[in-house]
What we know:
Blueprint: H1 3-8, E1 19-26, H2 32-43, H3 60-65, E2 72-80, E3 83-91, H4 99-107, E4 111-117, H5 124-135, E5 139-145, H6 154-165, E6 173-174, H7 183-193, E7 206-215, E8 219-228, E9 236-239, E10 245-247, E11 250-254, E12 258-260, E13 269-273, E14 287-290, E15 309-315, H8 321-334, E16 339-345, E17 349-356, H9 359-372, E18 377-379, E19 386-390, E20 395-398, E21 409-424, H10 428-437, E22 441-449, E23 452-460, H11 461-464, H12 468-475, E24 481-492, E25 494-501, E26 504-505, E27 511-514, H13 515-532, E28 540-546, E29 549-556, H14 572-592, H15 599-606, H16 610-617
Parallel strand pairs: 1-3, 1-4, 4-5, 5-6
Antiparallel strand pairs: 2-3, 7-8, 7-14, 8-13, 9-10, 9-14, 11-12, 11-13, 15-17, 15-18, 16-17, 19-20, 19-21, 21-23, 21-24, 22-23, 25-26, 25-27, 25-28, 28-29
Helix pairs in contact: 13-15, 15-16
Amino acid sequence: MSPQASQALPPNATPPAQIRNFCIIAHIDHGKSTLADRMLQITGVVEARQMRAQYLDRMDIERERGITIKSQAVRMPWEQQGEVFCLNMIDTPGHVDFTYEVSRSLAACEGAILLVDAAQGIEAQTLANLYLAMENDLTIIPVLNKIDLPAAQPEKYAEEIAGLIGCEPEDVLKVSGKTGEGVEELLDEIVAKLPPPEGDADAPARAMIFDSVYDNYRGVVTYVRVVDGALHPREKIAMMSTKATHELLEIGVISPEMLPSKGLGVGEVGYLITGVKDVRQSKVGDTVTNAGAPATEAIGGYKDPNPMVFSGLYPIDGSDYPTLRDALDKLKLNDAALVYEPETSAALGFGFRCGFLGLLHLEIVRERLEREFDLDLISTQPNVVYEVTMDDGSLITVTNPSEFPYGKVAEVREPVVNATILAPSEFIGAIMELCQGKRGQLGGMDYLSEDRVEMRYTLPLAEIVFDFFDQLKSKTRGYASLDYQEAGDQAADLVKVDILLQGETVDAFSAVVHKDKAYAYGTMMAGKLKELIPRQQFEVPIQAAIGARIIARENIRAIRKDVLAKCYGGDISRKRKLLEKQKEGKKRMKNIGTVEVPQEAFIAALSSDDSAVDKAKK
């Protein structure tokens, strides 16, 4: 390192040659968080009395479900041959819905630990994350975890990994995150194999924001990886995309709690606090530079995620709308993939149309909003974005079924995905049957070993966002794994099914479905609403319609008062007169009466959860 470079480093900063930045990538439940726990213990950054399982999973929801939702950065010291190295590790999520967290982490690293369960082998998300790491030109260290399990087959899966990434089976490290076996050798391997970060210490400061969180007392806390130059406390910094400038109140490293320092140099990972409360000013993927001597070019390599599934979020109490808006603003800071805009519904009032990466993402966001901000929410049926071309050539983008145009439609295009399914070969028939039922097209099939097969399908996104994954798991006894990527769009025979109550369309229940499934959706929804809507004083027809054509109907019978109770005999004409009078009254009531749909009925009809239906019936 040149003398000039060392002068540019802040006091106490680690020289780049002694830094190793890496992340752990794997399929869900392959032991990433457990391995991270052992590394924290072995390197001594967490004392034994403070240690708890899944130490880096900070949210209650992560601990309850046993999954990582947020990637977490941590700095660990590791001594080798008398030299102390600084290891910056990022623990990443494994679920397909949180791939954007992984892609951000990869942009901040030089290497990745590819972790595979020695009892389960390579799964779909392992492959997806591996390809992401290869696209970023990262050095990959293959590791087999859980070798202490009785069902582990390390030799078999070491050959599978070796065939996949082009190394020798003996190069695959074998560790146990639970017992700590082999973890020290892995830390030595990280120091030996991974390249140190490269950057110009004398250039203007450039640091990439790869994550940020909101602290009620300190404002926005921004996590950065310094690429060039250095950042020091009390200097003025600028965000290159928003052009906002702030004073740097505190800068430091995460080990694993926040430790203030005198600055960050080339290759270091740490946090910045500016005291700013406006959450929109710290954008993930943005470049931080020195306001006095700014860099001319921003750091590239990070793409904004595209939402795949849209759903409306509405507060049950209308007065909670401003709280929901603030809550979404704060959550977006912590979750870069969340997209939202205001919308109104005649049935549900004011709310937001939100874009998510998948159903688990939707579920987690909704649960976090309810827990962290004390809100009660309704989410509408998830749906995808359609492109509708009218006969006159005009193009309409539909993110909500209520926006689907009436009139002559020339073509409707729906998004499709390339799905990769990994499963034991005995389930090929069941998987093919399921995918064909979901309008899938087989793209190819490869055997990874004699009993494991990789199947590639092109599937409409609308078909897989509901219960495809659940059905796949049940048909393969839980052995199959799924990963999918966007693959453009295709023309499809789609129609909008409206639900009418007493001839009035209820926008919240509308859906865009394939023509072959329209009748099934119409009868299902009409039957569900018949159970949920309380009986009125008059008969209420529930109809499902495509345009002006009614395709299904159910009737809610009227509550009828017994007007003949006071007649103890006498002429039949007297009874008939009373019944005719009642009939006229019912008819008049039907003309002026409106059907009140209780909130519970909306929640139950819009959720796929049967418990909500039972609750509404009570």
